[in-house]
Amino acid sequence: MSMPTVLIIDDEVEFASTLCQRLKLRGMATVDVHSGVEGLDALKKMNPDIIILDLKMPDMSGLDVLEKIKELDSTIEVIMLTGHGSAGSGVEAKKRGAFAYVMKPLDIAELMAIIESAHKKRGKG
Amino acid sequence: MSRHRHWLEKLIPAPKTNDDYGCNITREYRRFSRGLSIILLILVLAPLTLVSVLAHYQYENLLQEEEQDQLVLNLEEAQLTIEHYVSELQSVIQFVARDDRYEELLDPKKLEALFVRLKSEYPGFADIEVIDSNGRQKTYFGNYSLGEQDYSNQIWYKKVMLQGLYISSVFSGFRDVPHFVIAVSRKHPEKEDLWVLRVTIDGKTLQHFIDTIRTSYSDDMFLVDSEGITTTQPLKYGKIGEICIFHRIAGEEEKTFVSKMSSGITIVKKTVGNQKVNHAVASLVNAPWKLVLIKEQYLHASSWTQFKIKLITMFLTCVVIAIFVIIEISTAITTHLRVSDKKRQQLYSEAEHSNKLASIGRLAAGVAHEINNPLSIINQKTGLVQDFMEFSGDFEHKEAMAEALAGIQSSINRCKTITHRLLGFARHTDVETEELDVNSLLREVIDFLAREATYNQIRIDFDLDLDVGKIMSDRGPLQQVFLNITNNAIDAIGDHGTIVLSSRKVDQKSILIKIADDGPGMSTEVQERIFEPFFTTKETGKGTGLGLSITYGLVRKLGGDIKVISELGEGTTFKITLPVQQSE
Fold first, then answer.
1. How far is B384 from chain A (nearest CA, A)?
2. Average pLDDT in the B281-288 region?
3. Domain hosting residue A101, numbered range
4. ipTM of the predicted structure?
5. CA B379 to chain centre
6. Which of A8, A10, A13, A14 to mutate to test the interface with B (most CBs of B within 10 A)?
7. What domains are there in chain B, each with its CATH number?
8. Residue B411 exposure: Cα atoms within 13 Å on the Cβ side
């Protein structure tokens, strides 16, 4: 089973970099960027399997970024991160094609399980 | 105007209202009630008293006038009757003493015959005599023959010679019985001299006459002569032949009434002993007598006193009734005011409470959101350290460090629960409505808790109204509401108890859900704070104090209302009102 490449898009630098490190420790090729625009650029360069995307960012909302990602490559699985715990936003994101949503502060085990199933769905896991 | 208002406010102070319904407030309302009563009493009693007093005096004056009019009328009538009688006697005597009868009357037999004829008509005639121009008695017929009398020096004789007619006072004279005299003088048929026919009339005749005309209206009626000596026997006041007792008594308010019929009537108020009387006097035109009528003043008679007592009793009864009614009205108004004040205060407190809860909610959400981000970082950093430890070999204190990190992680999880709940309490998501059967939803929720309840030997009963039907609401939040309250009820009971869930249709627009337990209940203080975030009665660490505030927020978001009714030792009931339709 190959490890997925993961792109983390979150404006909270400390959070994104730490999560990036942790995923790297678990053997995943991971890159973290800190805005929607940077995220879309990185997507074109690295072609990730899975994107972990924050719902609330200052430049573009997570849902807009999600839409763009899906326009560029609909096969990429996106896991939404939300600080609100809002079922409404999560449901909306899922309607727009997100694989799942995870509430902050997140549990690494839970996230790993979701990444694994997303990777499986993509057919690489 | 403002001064009036100030004056009125002093008398009827507006009760101050605040949250404390203690004795001070009761006193305020009592003062208000008292002020109101006083104003109403003045408004009612002042005109009542004024009208009563004025009416009384007016009526009294009217009565007095009426009484005096009546007195004048009666006396006038009596006066005319006596005058008529006297003038009749006078006419008879003048008739029999025709000028040419002088010689005839000198014959004692003819005089006797005349006397007998006259006596048959007027039984009061006592004697008759003819007197010549020298004042000597020529003939006499009667019971009191005193021999030949010489009247030439007597005043009456002089008067009759001068005036042609004389009527005397009542006197005893030679006869020693009361009598009066009517004498007429006539011209001698042959000489130029005058002769006199004198008739003595028994005083009893006059007495009899007075007794006849004395009406029930008068208390007493009698004749007095020009000297004030009573010439007929009064019924009550004095004796015949004595100075009339009223002659000596000074009176007050003298009034004279003059009419076409009489020469003038004088009415004077006088007091005899304890009795106040009207003393009315009328002079007779054709006799030297005065007719006196005595009548007790009506205003001092017992019938007037009785009438006054009745009047005062009625007035006092009205006053008592007015006082009673006014006090009742004031109390009713005050009670009404107090109840509405209390209701308004409660509404105000409720509005304030929900406002406070909303503010706290917003604040809590803000805080939670702000804390959530650093919390995520701490979480990740802790996780990263844990990862490093996991992927590196053994080192000194590794185990202790791992333990410390697990402690941090556990605290992070606790904070996470709190922030999530806080965010849930205040989140601004739209309500997703669907058609729901509330009764089924209640049963579904209880299915979750049935095991725990059974374990604690708590019975859960349903009292569901089938008419409740379906409502438009959001399933998730509603489930959470029922779950939270029922869960709290189970916690409150501990073990052995009953929870009753009931539903009822209030009207076309709303339904009511009641969740009642027979647990220990709560104090008023706890009830007031029960929906505040972080307020908990559970042991530290066991409850976040957010369950009911979240519930409150959810119910409000669904357009409903939640209330708690509880009494210590009796149990607690949560009443949830929900709209049948969600408003736009």
1. 6
2. 86
3. 5-106
4. 0.85
5. 81
6. A14
7. 97-206 (3.30.450.20), 361-426 (1.10.287), 434-579 (3.30.565.10)
8. 8
